[in-house]
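Lab meeting notes turned into a lecture example. A postdoc, R.K., suggested we walk through two folding results consecutively so the class can see how the record format repeats. The first protein's sequence and structure tokens come next.
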Amino acid sequence: MIQAQAFLSAAAARGFDFYTGVPCSFLTPLINRVIADPACRYVGATSEGEAVGIAAGAWLAGRRTVVMLQNSGLGNAVNPLTSLNHPFRIPTLMIVTWRGGPGVVDEPQHEVMGAITPALLDVIGVAHAPFPGSAKAIAPTLDRAVQHMQRDGLPFALIMSSGDVAPEPLHGIPAPAHAQGVRHGAPTGGAPPSREQALRTLLECVPGNALLIATTGKTGRELFTLADRPEHLYQVGSMGCASAMGLGLALNTDRPVVVIDGDGAALMKLGNLATIGAQAPRNLTHLVLDNGVHDSTGGQPTVSDGVDLAAAALACGYAHGHTVDDLPGLAVALGDALAPARAAAGPSLLHMRIAPGSVQALGRPTIGPADVARRMRTLLGVE
């Protein structure tokens, strides 16, 4: 058994100071200590997959990250670990608890995952080791993890058992308090523009130093076709994680960050809105281009027609929610969201209705995901 602070101090000496995750009773001492440690940043996520995305964004801005989760939550994290961290070569230190492990009497819901936790990590290509159970094991365990991440650019997991960390009380922290956000926009009801037209307007409106995170599918492909810049990152998988990645990035840079989301992706991880609202980054603009369909897979309908995403964002703590359906309205909304006076109040969500479909003979980015990620880090001076 070790003290939580002994692990955090050793981790900090190796550069790890940004933590995110979802609680587990095995993790309680570590999370409680992280929350109380002024040298660390902790972002509580609504899902394990979201936490992986948040950590990925923080890594883009130069932070060494730790993602904490229960092994049952590995199921929620498999997608971003395999389709975000792996292709983009994004390392993160994971602390995965081993509920239902060998010889552990536990709740029935942990039986299957308890039996397969190490094997599942092997299958998805995440190297792992036992969490250090003694003070003398902390340094060599962390050094092994760092060596692996530096060599392969991939996550490394420490599997934590019950009792590995001594109890630690939770020192109360005030819950975030936000003023009621402001609703904007008066949709015209006219024919919605195309995604390409909306992206062109976006590129005309954003400042040159803005960092753009485009969701997977045709959004990123069209953005690349219109303009490829070091400030752009095109997600090629991890559907729903663009806003989480944008949050992690926005919390660690002073530059404006614009997330370009789709309706299907935004709905997939709607909990991200609550985390963004709670963290309240002043430099984050969240643009949802809503065509009502899964465009990249043949146009199957989403359920966005009955969802007011601007209202949902305001309910989650965003400072501003815009609803637009034409290009002039989008330009006005972007100007409002990116204005320093508006941004000072917190994040904005722009919900824009667009037409289904995409440009003909649409290509794909010719620069690989790992190169896209590292050129942004180079741009930010952290690579």
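The second example is placed directly after the first for contrast:
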Amino acid sequence: MHNRLDLRRRDRQTCLQPVAVMWCDSNGPDKFANVAALDVSEHGLGLQTPEPLPDRARVVLRAPRLGLHGEALVRHCSRRGTQYLVGLEFGRNMRWRPVSEPGS
């Protein structure tokens, strides 16, 4: 069942994979974090981070187990307890493709 406020164009699949991210905060220095991916779709990724990422910030991400490496844009960031839920939209040159099951 879809949340009526869910405006995603593509369904996301749950995944719990490590992701390395880099971004610039409002003070200018590059920031790095190893975070957890929560879900993934062809065009985006949901992350859980220990600190907020600025809206519309460009991030560089690397998630080898998901076959992802490139730039993405922060589409939303909201606090959830002591963590933040961040939604990323992949740049033009990055797409996620699910691994096909043998025999399908």
